[in-house]
Design brief:
It is built from eight helices and no strands. The two termini are about 20 Å apart. By secondary structure, it is mainly α. The chain has one domain. Helix 7 packs antiparallel against helix 8. The longest helix has about 45 residues.
């Protein structure tokens, strides 16, 4: 069910009453993607060559496999950094889009109990708090990666671990919009995500894959915001 909600989000953002709320997130996506493509395109090959040059001689036979694993991890990193930066900048716009999607689907808007200034501060503050939460767990996963990557066979599970971590991260990013519009605390948001873990992982995994696809990644953020709002209303709002 989770993957279908991203596709539903792509359909929702084409609705006449919602299109104008998609323009700002798309413009931000274009800016962030352009910056990251310049950074990764100019530096990635040099980073990989330097890393592989430092491998001990007894691991030389793994160089080709490690190169492909590193490329996959770099692609995932691009996806996650893009998502975090784009959502940090577009947080207030995404909250408005989520609110309008909810009004489109239900005829009413969510109430957070805050002023618009309070909602703006909460959107930026919530994004920064999620960054701190992500980075703490990413450091632990990075340490595990450094242990597993040089080990034959075990190293091949590293991209899967990062993909699963990123899928949960993206689900949190996008579902935070309908949850934030209700004034939920950070702890409550995490609890609600964990209650429907597999549904949310399916949604986040689909968002991750679409973020890797050129052109699709330009509109994946507003589509994911719309799809996450629909997912919340159908499966998570009712269990409150």
């Amino acid at each position: 069910m989770g993957p279908g909600y991203l596709l539903r989000g792509f359909r929702l953002i084409t609705e006449p009453g919602l299109r104008k709320f998609v323009l700002a997130p798309i413009a931000i996506n274009i800016l962030v993607i352009g910056l990251l493509m310049w950074l990764f395109g100019n530096q990635l090959e040099g980073w990989l060559d330097s890393w592989l040059a430092g491998l001990p001689g007894w691991l030389a036979w793994l160089e080709s496999l490690l190169w492909w694993l590193a490329m996959l991890l770099a692609l995932l990193l691009f996806c996650y950094v893009f998502t975090l930066l784009a959502n940090l900048i577009a947080g207030p716009f995404n909250g408005i889009l989520s609110s309008r999607v909810e009004r489109h689907l239900t005829g009413r808007e969510p109430e957070s109990g805050r002023s618009w200034r309070g909602e703006l501060v909460d959107a930026v503050g919530g994004e920064l708090r999620r960054w701190r939460w992500y980075l703490g767990r990413a450091v632990l996963l990075l340490l595990l990666t450094l242990v597993l990557l040089p080990i034959p066979l075990l190293g091949t599970v590293v991209p899967a671990l990062w993909f699963a971590f990123g899928a949960f991260m993206l689900a949190f990013e996008y579902l935070d919009n309908p949850m934030g519009n209700r004034g939920m605390t950070f702890a409550d948001k995490l609890r609600r995500l964990r209650e429907r873990r597999w549904l949310n992982l399916g949604f986040g995994a689909t968002a991750t894959l679409f973020t890797m696809v050129p052109l699709a990644n330009l509109i994946v953020m507003p589509a994911a915001v719309a799809g996450a709002t629909a997912l919340w209303l159908d499966h998570m709002e009712k269990s409150r």
